[in-house]
Prior knowledge:
Helix content is 76%, strand content 0%. By secondary structure, the protein is an all-alpha fold.
Amino acid sequence: MCLEKLCGKMCGMHKNPINCLLHLIAGVIIIYALWVHSITWIIIGIVIALVGHIIQALSSGKPRGKEKKTKKLGNKNKLLKTKNEEFDKK
């Protein structure tokens, strides 16, 4: 159950093939950097992974930040329409 949720989230994060490829490259670089104890390569791997996240965010088409909430008028909107129709008839 928990594994299914984790796998679903990971698949959702890597919908863009470029993002997935950059994360795989970053993973290989970070594993190599840990093996040779090189902080420079670790930072390079992290930067490559962050570039992948940025590409995913830009290509998703969703605005990042606060979205404007539209107010639903419901019955008020219908009432307004009927008053306008009555005014047009006169």
